[in-house]
Design a protein that fits this description.
alpha+beta, globular, 4-stranded mixed sheet, 2 helices
Length: 119
């Protein structure tokens, strides 16, 4: 990456363990596409709800040549997101899928649907 990884925590104290996991996930993303220019990750703990525990929202902004890919994972009804690591995992899984698709398009490997020519 040309621009160093930026990790931001909102509503929770910075966590070295969480940041290490995020760095590991970013390195895996670079396997899908090695021309990532920059990556910003924001982990946010939402306000406590009386019926639920705290939920985590993860946003990933990937800068690639000619495009900004944004992944945002926030599910108010998903109790799995009471675990920040689950929210991080799911956000990076989505980022990998989007990055793979972008790389396929860049390589010209996208399936083209043949539509009959209008008469």
């Amino acid at each position: 990456m040309q621009i160093p990884l930026q990790v931001t925590f909102r509503g929770l104290p910075p966590s070295e363990a969480m940041e290490a996991k995020i760095r590991e996930k970013v390195q895996k993303l670079e396997r899908y596409y090695d021309r990532i220019i920059g990556c910003r990750v924001m982990v946010e703990r939402t306000h406590h709800n009386h019926n639920k525990g705290d939920l985590y929202h993860v946003r990933i902004d990937l800068s690639v040549p000619g495009k900004e890919i944004v992944i945002s994972r926030e599910h108010h009804d998903n109790h799995a997101y009471e675990d920040a690591y689950v929210a991080i995992r799911d956000a990076f899984d989505a980022a990998a899928r989007q990055l793979e698709e972008y790389a396929r398009i860049q390589r010209g490997e996208v399936k083209r649907h043949n539509h009959p020519a209008p008469e």
